[in-house]
Amino acid sequence: MEKNRRVLVGMSGGIDSSIVCLLLMNQGYDVVGVTIRMWDSPRHFKEGGDVPDYILSARRLAERLGIPHYVLDARESFKKEVVDYFTFEYLNGRTPNPCVRCNCMIKWKMMASFAEEMGCWYLATGHYAKIVHQNGNYYVSKGEDEQKDQSYFLWDVESSLWERVLFPLGGMKKEETRKLAKKMGYTDLYTQKESMEICFVESDYRDFLRENCTEQLAQIGQGDYVDREGRKLGFHEGYPFYTIGQRKGLRIALGTPAYVLKINPLKNTVMIGEKSDIEVREMVVENFRITDKRDFSQTLQVQIRYRSSGKSAKITFVDDTLLLVEFEDVATAVTPGQSAVFYKDGVVLGGGIIGSDKSLKVAKKRLKRQSEEG
User: Fold this and answer.
1) Is residue 104 among the annotated active site residues?
2) How many CB atoms within 10 Å of residue 265?
3) Which is catalytic among the residues 21, 99, 102, 104?
4) Catalytic one of 99, 104, 120, 199
5) What ranges make up the beta strands (E) of the chain?
6) Any catalytic annotation for residue 102?
7) Per-residue pLDDT tens for 228-264?
8) What is the pTM of this model?
């Protein structure tokens, strides 16, 4: 397909993607809107009928702007690739990141395919991130608004797409977006509430597990809290309800604040201890995707959860499946299942999934053997 000024905009019905449509139209782009229907929750149908409110909202804006609008139904694949993954990870003692998974497996694949169908060279969304071109490659980088930056969620998207992607909000603060909506006469967008971080979870993920994993949770049942020596300290509700570093909601009194240190799904135990016990200086990363291996010969910033500050670290390639990350300073609550994203000067160089202590031991043994073999 030849490069053109036609752009497919992912429309969620919210303020960010709506302002993207307005900005791109003002810049002379031929805008086509698309909304992906992924998950139906009761809160999506406040207007009644069988079409979710966010689709109705996106459709009304498209009509107001005079642009075509389409709906893609991804409910079946979203359930399989994102929701089932989400519950599977918790039931296996890990803490998943469904937004990373959705971006990789659903959102950007469907948008890229539909863009081809619609003859759109460009793709655009309301993400607070930027695209940069350096050393012959296109990369995602952090957006201007540190509080809203969403580059963390995009590390596993196929990097060949970035040449065609536009992030009009990357250089803006969220408050600027809201003021722009008001200035343009879209007061309904200006007063719109923020969307939830996980679109299919109404409030607490534990409630979602209780509703969707009833049989599995019944089989798991209560388990033991243990200390670092394995001594029993009390009972917990079942390991899927806990994450590394968790302090609130443990419902156990030890006289001092307790934190979750480790989760053992085979024994249904949750190890708890002091805050200093969740500090580590190394971790292992699995299932990684990187743009250029040469970028990893230097100290990088590693972000281990959304909205956390990056930690300086040295990254060693163990083999094609594992990376060893050695922090210059301590990192707190490193959580298996979460994403580790590698940055240099705000540019995303890759990412991967944080592995378990067992995987860390495997990685160190392999490096030791490689060193001995010379």
Assistant:
1) no
2) 16
3) 102
4) 199
5) 6-10, 30-37, 69-73, 122-124, 129-134, 137-142, 165-166, 223-226, 232-236, 259-264, 269-273, 279-290, 300-303, 311-317, 322-332, 339-344, 347-354
6) yes
7) 999 999 999 999 999 999 999 999 988 899 999 999 9
8) 0.94
